[in-house]
Amino acid sequence: MNRTDRMTAKDMVEQLQILANEGEIDVEDVPEITTVASWITRYAASLKKQSAIEKVAEGS
């Protein structure tokens, strides 16, 4: 993954708000920044855990 392609929770919500303003998605479907930040945190933790499990399995 290219680090320059990363988006913050705020960036994601702003992009979703643009889509909502253009009518592509409902305004009610745009989550709060804190919700997106929580998703990112949980996803990153899940990836880290999976990576650790794979490294342990490789070492066995």
TrEMBL record:
It comes from the Eukaryota. This is Uncharacterized protein. It comes from Rhizophagus irregularis.
